[in-house]
Amino acid sequence: MTRLTIRRQELLELEHQAVWLFGTIAARSSTLRKLALASKKQRETSRDKLRAELLAAEETPSSSHPGYPNEGLDSDEDMRLAARTLLGQLNTVQLELVALTHGSDRAAVVTMLTNTAAASTRWGAAPSAFPGLDPKNGR
Predict the structure, then answer these.
(1) CA distances from 70 to 9, 39, 78 (A)
(2) d(Cα 92, Cα 95) in Å, to the nearest integer?
(3) What pLDDT digit, counting tens, does each position of 28-52 carry?
(4) What are phi and psi of 60, to 5 degrees?
(5) Of 117, 125, 83, 85, which Cα lies nearest the Cα of 98?
(6) What would the pLDDT profile of 72-123 be if each residue is shown by its tens digit?
(7) Could you count the other beta carbons within 10 Å of the beta carbon of residue 111?
(8) How far is CA 127 from the centre of its chain?
(9) Which of 61, 92, 120, 126 could be joined to 54 by an S-S link, Cβ 3.0–4.6 Å?
């Protein structure tokens, strides 16, 4: 399996988790429901596109888990933090994919990275000039 395929599989696994998380937030919080449902739809679109790309490359896409850890989703602020954290993880893998792709594939990943970074700000993250990079260690 190539580094590109490994990263795409990692991204798909995170997308599965994001779909679950935003569905869970929508079910638990009336104040965050609209934002969570919009985020869930965005993640479903990204997940489905990524899954199709893996199938086109004759790779077996990873499946979602029956459930994910849901500790710490007790308040709206906890849910916002969980959303920001997971979106940050998505950005990190997306940034790695930028380096592994070329041409129109790279442009598509950059668009995905930008959209995920914008979604993070809707959940309360500070805007970043370089989404996906940890400013503390340059990664």
Answers:
(1) 22, 18, 11
(2) 5
(3) 999 999 999 999 999 999 999 999 9
(4) -90, 115
(5) 117
(6) 899 999 999 999 999 999 999 999 999 999 999 999 999 999 999 999 999 9
(7) 11
(8) 16
(9) 61
Q: Which residues contact 12 (CB under 8 A, 6 or more apart)?
A: 47, 50, 51, 54, 61, 62
pLDDT tens digits, residue range 53-77?
A: 999 999 999 999 888 888 889 999 9
Does the pLDDT value for residue 137 go beyond 70?
no
Report the distance separating Cα 23 and Cα 133, nearest Å. Answer: 27
**Residue 80, SS3?**
helix
Task: Take residue 4 and report the two structure tokens written for it.
Answer: 């590109």
pLDDT of residue 127: 86
Q: For residues 113 and 94, is the Cβ–Cβ distance under 8 A?
A: yes
Q: Which tokens belong to 70?
A: 């849901």
Tell me if 19 sits within 8 A of 43, measured CB to CB: yes
